[in-house]
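Question (not urgent): is this output format expected?
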Amino acid sequence: MAAKVFIDGEAGTTGLQIKARLEAREDIELLHLGEDERKDADRRRDRLNEADLAILCLPDDAAREAIALIENPQTRVIDPSSAHRIADGWVYGFPEYEPGQHDLIANAKRVTNPGCYAIASVAILHPLISAGIVPSEWPVAISAISGYSGGGKSLIAEYENEDPGSSPGSPFFTYAHGLKHKHIPEIVYWSGLSHSPIFMPSVGRFSQGMIVQVPLPVWAMPGLVTAGDLHETLASHYKGQSCVTIAAPDAGKDIPRLEPGLLNGTNELRLHVFANDAGSQVVVMGLLDNLGKGASGQAVQNLNLMLGLPEEEGL
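Got this back:
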């Protein structure tokens, strides 16, 4: 029997992407609301409680309100918002996080989907910190660029407005200049950092794709840390994982440029370890589709695990 899945907020960017990945599948029965029913709390409550699994593609406050509407103890939830990413009782929906995480997700009632910037940052930092390669108190700085689709409907409209009299979106801009981006608590909690990183996100004039960069001056770190140590630690941590891959240690020499859209349409997160000739300076980069492994693709991977379906089905 097909599992009943309700996407609360299916008209949003992430909701539409998840719907596109699920609607042709025979092992999934999608539950819908009419356009005039989406703001009807009673109809939403009915769908949420009818579903075997609900996916909350909603703003944070609306996601919390949706949880309050669920009375059926059998309804399981994936929340792609940032409302529950460090909340008690929720399982972090990053299957490759560490051994056993797949099983935790598969058996969970409530799964919080990682943020796009955060999943790459955590994927880089967690293995290095847990292995003692990078000290937990290290002053980490993270810079990142995302396609404008990460900003939701309003930013998409700004860039894709075809009105001849309108101005196109900026080629590039930075934001979160107060250094309080909503992904920071998630990055700190799940990476094992003792302090908040300096995080500077940005947006470029391209629809989707993302690069997250973590520079590591290994010459200043305690112990004789090398670029090879970093690569070996990451490769060992993600060995056998198909959705998180590590580029070959010398791959950087053959890559004149790295473009953020290279993995668009996939659920892959690829990590690169770039170093100078002396090996004293390293930058670890995460490359992913912000709408794939960074959002809807990761949600579908979690859904597959929770419903006992092939992990990469529909991806």
